[in-house]
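[recover] target loaded
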């Protein structure tokens, strides 16, 4: 895997994690643990 592909994948994973945190905070309910842990899958 090339470095640029790894960087793009890591950016996508971090984006999913951030969106999960934002969704939980906006709903004022739930826990972001599962989507944050499973983002790389």
């Amino acid at each position: 895997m090339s470095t640029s592909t790894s960087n793009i994948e890591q950016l996508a994973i971090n984006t999913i994690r951030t969106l999960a945190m934002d969704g939980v905070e906006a709903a004022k309910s739930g826990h972001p643990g599962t989507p944050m842990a499973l983002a790389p899958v």
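[recover] notes: The helical segments are 3-27, 33-38.
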